[in-house]
Amino acid sequence: MKYLLLIHHGTSPTPDDEEAWGRLSDEEKGKVYAAWQALNENPKVTTGERMQPPQAATTVRVENGETLTTDGPFVSVKEALGGYFFVEADDLDEAIEIAASVPAAQTGGGIEIRPIAGTW
Asked: Which strands form 110-115's sheet, in the order they lie side by side?
């Protein structure tokens, strides 16, 4: 079964956040890089893309036929989506195991798992 794993960074330090990333030891940074490398080498994982910070977002809505745009995130920055990837897993338990290996899941963020719907 295919799953989409949505990475919510939360308070997880990332290289984009120089202050938080700088507080990590070289060993901690190495573990993060190694975990991502292992995910990228896992044949059940199809890598997605890391996203720019929520402040770079544009939100689009249509009201009464008019397209409206808003700069920045609509959701709280704390819970904003940071990236995604796809997993081909035997079942939800295996998808959970893979999600648990994502560094953000271990350092203040969370991984949302969504099964991929069949074709329309």
From this structure: 45-50, 81-88, 2-8, 110-115
On whether residue 64 sits in a domain, the answer given is yes
What are the pLDDT digits (tens) for 48-68?
A: 888 887 778 888 889 999 998
Measured from the Cβ of residue 85, the count of other Cβ atoms closer than 10 Å reads 22
What gap in Å lies between CA 56 and CA 99, rounded to an integer?
Answer: 26
Number of folded domains that form the chain: 1
- Cα dihedral 17, 40, 98, 29 sign: negative
Q: Which residues contact 68 (CB under 8 A, 6 or more apart)?
A: 60, 61, 62
- The model's pTM: 0.79
Q: What is the pLDDT of residues 70-102, one digit of tens each?
A: 887 655 555 678 889 999 999 999 999 999 999
Residue 120 belongs to some domain of the structure: no
